[in-house]
Amino acid sequence: SPCFFPTLVRALALRSLLSLARVPPWPALAVGSAALWLFVDITGASPSAVRAWAMATFLQAAQVGRQPGNLVAALAASALAVLVLHPLDAFSTSFLLSYAIVLALLVLGLPLGEAWQERCRLWPLLPEAERRPWHRAVEAGLRGLAVAVAGGLATTLVSLLTGVHFFGLLTPGSFLTNLLLLPAATLVTLAGFTALLAGLIGPDLPAVIANHAAALVLAGIDAVITATVDLPGFGFPAQFAAPWIGPPARHLLQASQL
Prior knowledge:
With 258 residues, the chain is mostly helical. It has helices at 4-20, 25-42, 47-65, 71-85, 93-117, 133-167, 174-201, 204-228, 246-257, and strands at 169-170, 236-237. The protein is built from 9 helices and 2 strands, in the order H-H-H-H-H-H-E-H-H-E-H.
């Protein structure tokens, strides 16, 4: 979902700031959700942004509640809340793509990333006292790469089917591109969040620096996209042998993940 990822990054940033301020979990969730909604409202409250806000809020509530937190149930609850307000969204391509991709991240990407992280300890027999900073740095880098690759694989499985079904395109090269662009998108989102926060507090210089940094990273993202879309095999027109194959294939994939 194009709106879910930046919304989640902002939600985590707000949660970190409120945690540093020693705000209790439930009040922090209320304040953070209200602040996120203010941002959604300022940007026009588009349906995709509202869905992203609902998903981020319900997923955080599941973690704060710890009953234990069921992320899939929280995602389903957010979908129900959105459909109560806008029932016709159930027939929207954007709605289906958003929830299909986030569901894939939760039920396939996260468990796969956790399993791979367990295998990223390169020196298991080395005592903790003998471990150097570069040991920890290498393992941390591998763990981050494992999470990114797992999430990329999960979303790629969904996007390959939905891309063919909805847009008539098969884009196998998007997996490698996303590995580069998602960290860059995170930097852009955090820079925009910093600029907004600095603007609210008062000083102009940090906001200007953050906005210029975001603009530079966005220029790099645009350059990467422009350079890769024309590469051989990156993407090409495709379609199912029969139009009815797309939805059952997508549902079967999601059912197999559950």
